[in-house]
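Issue 218. Parser rejects a valid record. Input:
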Amino acid sequence: MSEKKSIGREIHDGLAQSLTIACLKLDLLVMQMPKKSSKELKEISKLLRGTLSETRNLMHRLDREPLARVNRRKTKMPPKRRK
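Output the parser choked on:
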């Protein structure tokens, strides 16, 4: 397994899963709180979801680059030319 894929898998199996669980638990907490008290929790949830989104984007970037190279080789397509 390439180093990039290994890092991506570690991010997925650790950080991304922990962020997802934190978001879900925070959503449950927001539902149980009075509306006035939940404002701060909603802001924290928004921050966590943004961080989770950035983490997912990073995982996809780590995984996508090698796949693009492999797919070109399999189909015997020439590399993309830069304009």
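Fixed in the parser; the record now loads. The chain has one domain: 3-75.
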